[in-house]
Specification:
Blueprint: E1 3-6, E2 13-14, H1 16-28, H2 37-43, H3 48-58, H4 65-81, E3 88-89, H5 93-102, E4 106-110, H6 115-124, E5 133-135, H7 148-154, E6 162-166, H8 169-178, E7 182-185, E8 201-203, H9 209-218
Parallel strand pairs: 1-4, 1-6, 4-5, 6-7, 7-8
Antiparallel strand pairs: 2-3
Helix pairs in contact: 1-4, 3-4
Function: Specifically catalyzes the dephosphorylation of 2-phosphoglycolate. Is involved in the dissimilation of the intracellular 2-phosphoglycolate formed during the DNA repair of 3'-phosphoglycolate ends, a major class of DNA lesions induced by oxidative stress.
Binding site for Mg(2+): 7, 9, 167
Cofactor: Mg(2+)
């Protein structure tokens, strides 16, 4: 039976507005100027610790472990309290996931976002039940692009082809390191031209994904 594993941020959901809001609530606590949404989008992809590192760098702050922990913990408090209000599914995602599930595909998630808010976001859209496995950025001691999280997600499935779907440089590198076919969603948070990233398929709308996955599973 074929399985498909998805990234979350920038792939299934546009979560940047909620991340942006939580970061700016964190900064407002110390009367610091807010970040712009494009800035925050450029920081997303490598997990919360790196997100906070990039925030500190953008503000000209020196690397400091205590300061990093303080910002990290306060950000997570705000984000965990409200991770889904401003987050939206990309067009066609729900129909695609439900169609794949009805057709017998096994579905998983592998994201650098912590598992708690990842599950809450999927649940807020009524989609969590479709996912046989959810691997978050805090599920293992390493994060993507290390292939271990993706391999852990793939190990949850019975024998059969396993494919990965993501939107970013991190996802492309993770799939390549794990040796899995990769379908690149072009409308997410990627900064590099799509053709410069390793991939086996490209798509800009989820209506096109089921047919692409069927082709990849047969190849």
């Amino acid at each position: 039976m074929a399985a498909v594993i998805f990234d979350l941020d920038g792939t299934l959901v546009d979560s940047a507005p909620d991340i942006h809001a939580a970061l700016n609530l964190t900064l407002a606590e110390e009367a610091a100027p807010p970040l712009t949404l494009p800035q925050v989008v450029s920081f997303i992809g490598n997990g919360v610790p790196v997100l906070i590192e990039r925030v500190m760098r953008a503000r000209g702050e020196p690397a400091d472990a205590a300061r990093h922990k303080d910002l990290h913990d306060r950000f997570m408090r705000h984000y965990n309290a409200d991770p889904a209000t401003l987050t939206t599914l990309y067009p066609g995602v729900e129909a695609c996931l439900r169609g794949l599930s009805a057709s017998g595909w096994q579905i998983g998630l592998c994201t650098n976002k912590p598992q708690g808010p990842s599950r809450e976001i999927l649940g807020s859209f009524g989609l969590l039940e479709l996912f046989a496995v959810v691997i978050g950025g805090d599920s293992l001691s390493v994060k993507k692009p290390d292939p271990a999280p993706l391999r852990a997600a793939a190990a949850a499935f019975a024998a059969g082809p396993v494919l990965y779907v993501g939107d970013s440089e991190v996802d492309a590198a993770t799939a390549a390191a794990a040796g899995l076919p990769f379908a690149l969603f072009t409308e997410g948070y990627r900064k590099t031209p799509a053709q410069d990233l390793p991939h086996q398929a490209l798509f800009s709308h989820f209506d096109a994904l089921p047919a692409l996955l069927q082709g990849l599973a047969r190849s």
